[in-house]
């Protein structure tokens, strides 16, 4: 790790806080209260008619953007309670401490740290693994309605990812029944979780939050990175200095604003144009073979 001691201490504090949270020692703030605070803050005067707002965001925005597999009941429950994946019958009453964090706000000229939930409350977590699949059976429809929900697809996709990690093979593109999987799987020795976490040839390096513009100062990162990814919330950090740490033929992938539902179509187009201009200024050009679409823009370093 290249984290500073201050960052390491902060991570240790966060991990200890998570470890201390249990049914006997609940989190200092209820996630339901933190969630409701965010919803009230987001909707303002529309809070009393929030269910209509939820339905509009789903029907007129997400569904029109190709996310028709997102189930209305599940989406409405997530928007109201923050509960997206209900995998078992039971009451979900214990706060997940990993969803809570502190954020600094200005109050009467002073910086005040407030602990709460500051993540997404509009687009939904179904977008990550729940709207696409290589298994066509998960995307089938009957009478215009999807047979499977985004929750089902998310479960299947993540399960397949974990299976590929544990077997050290690529993701399966076709579904397999349990009997087929048992036949195809060679006899394996029991493997501990610790062994599964040790990947040959793979190294994850944690960097400080302000490291992006400091990497070019280190010689070992000169023309080092073959792939660079920017989320939509971090595009403002895209700078010409990135060219110094990009390897020859490096690929730059930037998330666009398609699923930021509060933006208009004109703002989405403007965002994409701004991203293209910033990438061009940084020394990258559009890469036609990179499968650019309305979700991601793909660029390649100019030679």
UniProtKB/TrEMBL annotation:
Residues 2-287 form the Dynein assembly factor 3 C-terminal domain. Signal peptide: none annotated. Pfam families: DUF4471. One of its GO terms (biological process) is axonemal dynein complex assembly. Coiled coil: none annotated. It comes from the Eukaryota. This is Dynein, axonemal, assembly factor 3.
